[in-house]
Every structure is written in C-alpha cells, then in structure tokens.
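Record minuted for completeness.

…
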Amino acid sequence: MPAEHDVVIVGGGLAGLAAARRLHRAGVSWRLLEAGDRLGGRVATDPVDGYLIDRGFQVLNTAYPRLGTLLDLATLDLGWFTPGVLVRRGAAVARLVNPLREPAGAAGTALAGVGSLRDRLRFAALATGCATLPPGRLLDAPETTAEAALRRAGLSDAIIEELLRPFLSGVLVDRALETSSHVLAMVLRSFARGRVGVPAQGMGALPRAIAAPLPADLVELRTPVTGVDPHRVRTRSGELRCRAVLVAVDPPTAGTLLPTLGRVRMHAYTTYYHATDTPPLDEPILLVDGDRRELVANTVVLSHAAPTYAPAGRHLVATSVVGPSALPEPVVRAELARLYGRPTADWEHLTTVDVPAALPAAPPLQGRLRKPVALGGGLFVAGDHRDSPSIQGALASGWRAAGAVLAELRAPG
C-alpha cells in the first residue's frame, strides 16, 4: 500500500511545530497528530477569572537562536522583565542587575552584599566568556555538573548558596545543580545576550504564532497515537502510512512509543499564582531567597512585565517551587510575606499549577548535549530531551529532526 504522506509528526508541542514548519517550507507532504485539544505541549496559557495563567512560570529569551527562524518576535508584544534579580538576606534585599542592560545599576550591583566583590567579578567573567565564545567552544569544554563548574570558576559558597543556586534552580528546575555544565554555559549565554519577557497574551501565544503559517487541515487535534512503526502510525481510529515518522511528544510518552530511547528522568515544577490590589514590588524583577531556606525558588509580579496578565487595577504574582506541590498554599503565602517584607493575608490564591514533568534532567557525561534524532528505519525523534532542556532546545531539536527527515527522503535509492 502506498504511503499517504511523506511524514507524520506525532506531537504538536514546540518541537513538532518547528519540524512541521521546516517540512512545510521544503514542500514535502506531512500531517501532524496531537493528542490534546490545542497545540503547544508544555507551553500553554489558561484564562482564570480575568488573569492569564501560564502552565508554570515560563519566560521567553530573545537570544534563543531558533526563534528568529520561526516568527517575528514583535508580533508577540513582549513585556520585559528587569535584567537582574533581588536577593532577600535577613532584613535586607540586595539588587543585582546586568550592567550591560542597565548601566545605572552597575554601581549598586558592585556594592551589593551578596558574596564578595571578587565573587561578582569572577561571575561576570564567567558570564562574559559564555556570551562571547562560540557555542562550539563552550560545548567542547570538559563537562561536569553546573555546581562544579561554578566552583571551578572560583566562586564562594556564599554567592552560590545565596544567589546562584536559588536563581538557577528555577531556570534548570534542579535545586541540586546536577545539570550539565554545558547546559549552564548555554543558559548564561542566553541571559547575557538576550532580553527576557512574556507575550502580552501569555506564553501560549508562542506556539500559536509558530503554528500560524501552517495549513489547519494538516493538523489533527484530539488524536492520540497508540503506536508507531517505521512508515506507520497507529491511532484509535486507524493507521496512517508514511515514508517517515517523527515522534515529537513529551519525553515520557516518547519513551513509551519508542522503547529504545529508555526512560527520561523529569524534573517537577510548581507555580502558585496570587492576585492582589497592591503589588509588593514596583518593578518586574525576580526575587529569590538568599537565606538558604530552600522553599521558594523565585517570585515575581508578572503583571508589571505584562499588564495584560491581570485585570485593570489588579496584579498577578507568580511564585515557583522546584519539585511537586508538597507545600500547602498557606506556607507559601507566609514565605512570600517574609520575602517581600509585606503582609500577604489579603492576597487571593487563584490557582496552583503543578507540572510533574516540566523539564528533562540533563546530567553531565552523556556524551554530547545534542543527541541523535535519526533512529533508523524511517523513525525520527525530537524534543528538549534531545537537546538542551529549554524552549530553545525543543525548537532546535524539531528543526534538526526535520532536516534529518529531509535528508533521508531525498537520499538516492
């Protein structure tokens, strides 16, 4: 029986959408099957009582290279965060900013009481190296854990425990900082080179914008895939024959459909959303806990970055915890009162978003950050578990997997 399509893409998250865009541009026939009722996978936004609630606190970094291939960032109407961080230490709050992005704050950052001046200079040197060296050089460096890389750079316990661990734990979803130093280098590179923001209509606007140029009749929602073989995809309503299958589902589901991949360990992330009339800060800047209590990873007034996240006259506060939602909301609310130095008793708890499989673990010594996407026999795989655990990793892997598909389809014989 002849193939019905050149390629069937399983999964409509960022990786699957990036793959579809490249295949569509190349003029091959394709079809995308998504089990859910919308595209985007782990990147989604839901309206709740007039607020925009993302599926866990997420941000977009303009330094992600693959974004420019797929959309015009101006169409997202991004609201920006202050390029820096606040650190609560006892009764004081230190403000540290990226001096390249906010020169006026450079003096205050140099004098901030988090770590020593030598620490801050050494960290600046580390971040500058990540920003300026070619990515290939960074990925060729000896690989270790993120924590070991920070200590190798000569940073003290004070700055690691009071600033870098709480900040990076929210980025990597890894409080132990066991993530690969190569991932750390890419993270520092993106923060040093890019701006960080959120779309006016929530993070769910990102997959919608990427999917916009794709013909709607080639995308099937609410179509779970029950199995894949080379050149065949099975669903509850039948099967589709094709020349290549590209599996771009979440990592746990990918392991089920493609058992040879093995189990992908996932990190959990929980975000508590609160509403208030009076914001606890007057700027959109991340606040982290430098007191080593290890309860809250970070908190931010989202509506200061994008006022559309909350109704007029109201503000939305997002607070994230690394791991599943083990903390009762009153405990989080008490922590927020301590961190912000403001009463929180009258705050409204809108919802708690628990994402058990937020990001794949990326430990060191795996051979290489970018894993193979061509599995042989017409089977391909994409997702942030094949690249860096990030939005950029998902997009890059999807684009790369589509390139591998095209190479096989065009190969002679």
User: Anything to note?
Assistant: The chain has a mean pLDDT of 93. The longest strand covers residues 348-360. The two ends are 19 Å apart (CA to CA).
